[in-house]
Amino acid sequence: MHKSASGSTLGPGGLDLTQAFFKPITNAAPPSTTKQHTKISVIGVGNVGMAIAQTILTQDLTDELVLVDTNADKLRGEMLDLQHAAAFLPRTKIHASTDSSITAGSDLCIVTAGARQIAGESRLNLLQRNLSLFRAIIPPLVSHSPDTTLLIVSNPVDILTYVAWKLSGFPSNRVIGSGTNLDSSRFRFLIADHLDVNAQDVQAYIVGEHGDSSVALWSSISVGGVPVLSFLDKQQIPYEKETLENIHKSVVDSAYEVIRLKGYTSWAIGYSVANLARSILRDQRKIHPVSVLAKGFYGIDGEVFLSLPAQLGRGGILGVTNVHLNLEETQRLVDSAKTILDMQIQLGI
Predict the structure, then answer these.
(1) Average confidence (pLDDT) over 314-339
(2) Is residue 17's pLDDT more than 70?
(3) What is the set of domains in the chain, with CATH numbers?
(4) Is residue 155 marked as binding?
(5) Please, is 251 exposed, middle or buried when counting C-beta atoms within 10 Å of its C-beta (0-12, 13-18, 19+)?
(6) Active site members
(7) Is residue 153 marked as binding?
(8) In this predicted structure, what is the pLDDT of residue 231?
(9) Where is the Lactate/malate dehydrogenase C-terminal domain (predicted)?
(10) 27 is an annotated ligand-binding site residue
């Protein structure tokens, strides 16, 4: 399947309407040679990939959006469906192809493609299938866009971000996993709901594995700049650790609940990844808990990707925030890293 996009020619003779509609400005200066055109490629047009693509379009984050998938019919259908909304969206060129060469020159490549777990299949076997899939996806993306940043969304995201890093040969700052950015959003929502405040006023992070071994950083939570736990202690307001653990458990279980109810998750991860894309491409230097190479941080020894609060900008990962962790949180984070490392060892990578 070749790339498809809207053009400026109509009719069997291919009449170029641009020449008929517009007259050139005399003595006009040539366009600036400074690169201002932004291109994002989304690999995989399943529910997650399309939610990301739709959110990127509505938030006007790119000049060109490319969709890549192996299912040619679905791919063309999704492309046409988005193109037909052109009158309601910011102007964005939308292309689609089964050939990854269409991604050439991408500023950001977002990988959502991944094998789904078959009933009764082990997690290790699922990982092996995704490893084979990434061996087919990542090298061509790197070949066509050697200066791109890779943003991995496919699950299990931490291990597959490590796989993408190894296959790409990129420096680690240009390979990022969506990690616990969404988990942290769920965490902030639950705390805000509990305290009846706006979630944007809550500063709270989930770190570690995007999964069951994730770590809630209770010691650093603040609301409106007020550290929550130290405030409760100073005011001698009692709280139960079990209550805190239940909130964290709700974060971990929330994705499972959405999947049980509607069959998949899409909208929240779409907003989460678009938020990351904005921070990267517009050099926002915002802090997000994303999956990064964690070796050397908080006593973690070994090449493992897991989520830590990191500053994002045009160069990808600009740095990891020096957030204070208490002893229990540090140990849980190290344990979370070991969980991922053990799986990587079994995978043989």
Answers:
(1) 92
(2) no
(3) 35-175 (3.40.50.720), 179-345 (3.90.110.10)
(4) yes
(5) buried
(6) 210
(7) yes
(8) 73
(9) 180-341
(10) no
